[in-house]
Structures are given as C-alpha cells and as structure tokens.
Amino acid sequence: MxxxxxxxxxxxxxxxxTVISDLSFDVRRGETFGFLGSNGSGKTTTVRALLGxxxxxxxxLHINGKPFSPEDGSRxxxxxEERGLYKKEPVIEIMTxxxxxxxxxxxxxxxWSLNYLERVALAGKAKIQLDKxxxxxxxxxxxxxxxxNDPELLILDEPTKGFDPVxxxxxxxxxxxxxKAGATVVMITHQMEEVERLCDRVLLLKNGTAExxxxxxxxxxxxxxxxxxxxxxxxIPKSPHYSVTLExxxxxxxxxxxxxxxxxxxxxxxxxxxxxxxxxxxxxxLDDIFLEVYGDQNVAYxxxxxxx
Amino acid sequence: xxxxxxxxxxxxxxxxTITRRRFWLGTLAFPAAIAVILVLTVISNITTNSTADAxxxxxxxxxxxxxxxxxxDQAAAMFGAHLVSDRQQGIDGVKEGTTDAxxxxxxxxxxxxxxxxxxxxxxxxxGKYSAVAQEMISQSVLQKIGSSQLATMAQHAxxxxxxxxxxxxxxxxxxxxxxxxxxxxxFYGLIMLLAGQMVNSTLEEKExxxxxxxxxxxxxTTLITGKVITLFMIGLLQALVFALPVVIGYVxxxxxxxxxxxxxxxxxxxxxxxxxxxxxxxxxxxLYTTTLVAVGAAMPTAKExxxxxxxxxxxxxxxxxxxxxxxxxPHAVIVEIFTYFPFTAPTTALLRNGLGTLGIIESIIxxxxxxxxxxxxxxxxxxxxxxxSISYTKKVPLRSILSRKGx
Lengths: 308, 407
Prior knowledge:
Chain A is of the alpha/beta class.
C-alpha cells in the first residue's frame, strides 16, 4: 500500500534553473516527518508541487494515492511559509469561512473556532479585525485555521516562525495533540531541537536532492554516530577508535568509530594517564549534522572575510 | 463540494463587502450628493418661482413711451404705468425720483430692444423691472389676440408626433432607443464604480498572503467565478441604491424639480434590442471583470495595477471619439473595428443597438465575441491566480503562464 505522501523521481525546473532533481521519499501514515534543508534548497517548492500549487516538471507526487486536488483539502492542514489571512475581517468570520471551505457547517465551524480561541487565550478577540491583533496572535489564528476539521495530514512550513518561546511551546502542544489524534505531520523547519523532539524520520534536502533520509538515529549514525563529551586534564592520546573533533581547555569531543565499545575508549584514556572528570556518550546532534551538510554554502563568504 | 464552496465564497465575499463602512460611504456618497442637489434644486425653484411671481406683480411707479402702439391701456393700468410724452421726460423722472422706472418700448418689439431706466435696487432686485416690462408686453399681446387658443399656440410649441416606417413596420423612433440605451448607462456606471474592486478582489489574496491557504481548499476557478458573481451582485446592489433617489425624486418631487413629464407609456421595448442590449451588457461586464481580475492576479500591488485600470477606463470611452460616425455612418470602417474589438465592443455595440443600427447578425457576433473573450480571460485569470499569485513581490510574466498551460 502506498504511503500517505509518496514522491517519486520528482523534478522541478524553472527556466534554466533546476531546483529539484530526482527526489523520492515517502511519509508514512501517522508519523511526524522532518523535511529539512537550508534556505533555497527546494523544500517549499516541493511542498507547493505536492499540493498542486506548482506544476512539477516530472515525477509522481501523491497524497493518499493520487495527485492532490483542492477538493481533497477538507482533511489537509497546510501552514505555508508565506502566510497571512484576510486582514480587514473579524477573526471569527475568517475562521468560520475557512472552516466552511473545509467542509464544516457554519455553526460547527463557528463553535470550533470559539473553542479554539478560548484554548489559545484569544476568547475576547473573536470579533476583532485581524490586523488589530499582534503578530503572535495572528499566528495563533493562522494555526487554528490550519488545524480545523481534524486534518489527516498536517504540513507545517516553519511553524514556529514569529512565535515567542511560550507560544512556541503552545504550538508544539497543539501539534502533539494533532499527532495523538492520528494526524500525519510534515514539518519544515530549521529548529533542530524541535525535529529531534518530535520527528520520527527526516529528509535533508541539498541542491535539490536527498542528502540524507531515514530515522533520526540512522541519520545521526551516518554523520558521526556517537560522540563522547569529555571533561578531563592531561593529554588525549591518538587512537584509531576515535577522532578528536573539538579540543578546548579541559574539554573535548571525541567522535567514535562505528561499533566501538565506549568502555574501551574510557580504558584507553585511563591507560594514557588522562584524568577523566566527566565522560558522556551522546549522538551527534542534528544541529551539527545540519552544519556539516550545509556549512560549505558560506565558504566563499568566509574566505572573502578572511582575505583568502 | 466545489458547488458548496462556490456558495461559501459568494456569501463570504458579498457580505464582507456590504458590511464594510467604506463600501456604504462610497455607495451612498453618490445618492447623497444627488439628494443634496435635489433639495437645493427644490429650494432654488421655490425661491425662483416666488421671486419671479413677486417680480411680475411688483408694485412700483412706471412711466413709459410706446412707439409700437402695442401696449394696451388695460395692460398699463394693470401695472399702474402712465404714458409720458417723450424719452427724456421719462429718464428725467427716474433721475429726479418722481418715478421708479421708465420703459421705452420701441417701434418693433420683436427686433428692437426695450430700454428700461430705473432706480437702482441692487443686482437681484433690479430683475423686477425687466420682468414687469416683459409682462406688460405679454398681457398686451394676449389682449390683442383675443383668443385663448391662439394665445396658447403663440406661447407654446404644438405637440407633434412623428411616425416613421421601416418597410411596412412602424419604426420606434426615440421612444424605442431610450430603453436599450439605458444598458450603456448601466455598463458605464458599473465599470466606473467597480473597476477598482475588480482588481483588488484578487490582489487582496496576494497582498495578504492568503493565496496558498486558499489554493489548498478551493479550486482557483471556483474562487475567481465566485468573485465575479459577487461583483455582479454588488454592481446590481449599487445600481439599485443609485437609482433610488432618482426614482423617489421622479415619483414624489417631479413638479418641484421641473423634471420633464416622461410618459412611460410611449416608451417602446423592442424585445430583440432589449435582449441584445442585456446580453451585450452581460458579456461586456464579464469581459471587463475577468480582465481586471486577471490584472489583479498578475500585479504585485494595487499601485502597479492602477495603470492598467486607467487603460481599461480609456477603452470604454474611446468609441466616443467617433460618436458622430456611429450615429451618422454606423458602417464606417472605424466604427466596425470598434464594434468588434472586444474592449471597445460593449460601448460601441450598445450605442448602435440603442440607435437601432446594429443588426441581429451583428449583435450575435458581438455577443459571441464578448462571451468567448470573457471565458478565455477567465481561464487566463484562473491560471494567473493559480500559478502566478504566489509570486508575491513581482509581476507575473504572461509568457511563463501560457507556457505552463501548454506544458
């Protein structure tokens, strides 16, 4: 059976510019999927093509086994990167309108909206014109419109953009609730801690192709696997079992070779006379992986600044 | 679901428009201005009539000389005027203050000027002298004619009815032109008032970044069609609001306003011309609406769309540069071009249809052109909106949209 989202050999060309070349991946029903990439890597283009906003140059882009059509939009929640609503209308009218477009009755849409506004502490703003609200409040309204009618598939493009930490937490709770209710979530974000916390699988898009694709564990293993965070005094010996990726005053990070036992590393350090005060084994963070994958993009700039 | 959403779009777009204070300020400004003009006209007419009456019956001492022999004793007595022997005596009397006015009636009052010399009473009050002099002549003439029927005929033009024939069929004349020409008036009114709103209807989604949210819940065809239908409904509402003071004025204040007593029973409604006029109006409105909606979808801001509105406005007035030809030689080449060029067709064809110079075949061709072009423009507007309206900050190149449609 085809996954909820199925993309195969997708290619997108604008004029002479190939934005996406031969991209394939699936998003399984019920999972939270992180779609990652640097600015301009083609994430938003892929989502727009998936939702029929762009016409793909080639390839298959399916939701629920067929190309997406707005008629199937009643169970889709899409929070675009470029977002906004009708600014001159009262909040409740906007929410009711979108609820009705998603197939809800007027009364049901209005009741749902009032309930949501209560939850996000905007109960008193129902009749206020949207542009009278703060940016953060408008974001909450936008999120409400996105999750109306219990979406089966949520596609969130930079969902936390414009949210303060408190509201970011609220947003994450709401997303978690949707997931609990059975929604499949596709998140496009640069917030790697959110990805690590929420996502089951990720895809790193680079230059229009999949640089990495799999569970977070699989991706972490591919980009260095485990790291030992070491607090110590003395001199760290050279070893084929690890490489020193960071060395500061009495602190170092060692990237371990695959399959090596951490206890063996500790033994080697003791044997070399290193006084170990802290020894923590973690996996390489997605943040570091992101930097490793996309760090070369600004090489030219750094070289220029350094006068090389 | 698409059908359901069309109704949802129309009700949302219509009610949010008519619940805006701005909409009613704009819509009511016109009838309010008309109402103010009506009130001022009524007051002015009442004042003018009473002033004219007062002036005609104004009492002041008058001396006169009459070289024409026209002024009767009764007419002179009516105004208390007394005859003086010569012109100089009359003028001296005014200068000395013994009489208020002196009228010198010439030998031929039809070709020569009646000279009035009078004590100055100010610019407005001085009008009473000429009013009384005129009234003395009128009364004298009436008395000399001695027949009220002849007097009425002398004072008013006779009512003449012209009946013409096209072959064996009686032609309608002006009475049959008025009703179909109203379609042209309606067309102008709607386009002038709604052009801005037509452009903004799609620009709003773009400027507010609503496009992507909309495109995942609604087919662009449904959205654009819903907006066009809404514009029709708003146009109809505005037309009704504008018509209201005219109807009220005509029905209740016709006498006070000196409106011509139009006898509607003489108006002729040629069904062919009425249907043709309605369809040309509908087709023309559809074409202009879809075109301006397409402009809104292609332009990034209202400011940049403004120049296109100017062009469209110019196009509906262009046929008036050749209005003389449209009336006198409707088959001149330039008139034919304007009749069939889609953007000048509505006004030219509506004018010709009103004047009865647009044949049935020509009407069918014009209507077909307008509806086909409107349908094509609707498709283009939909494509521009679907593939172009997410180009939030730049104009959408038409070529890229057309190539996308092709590919």
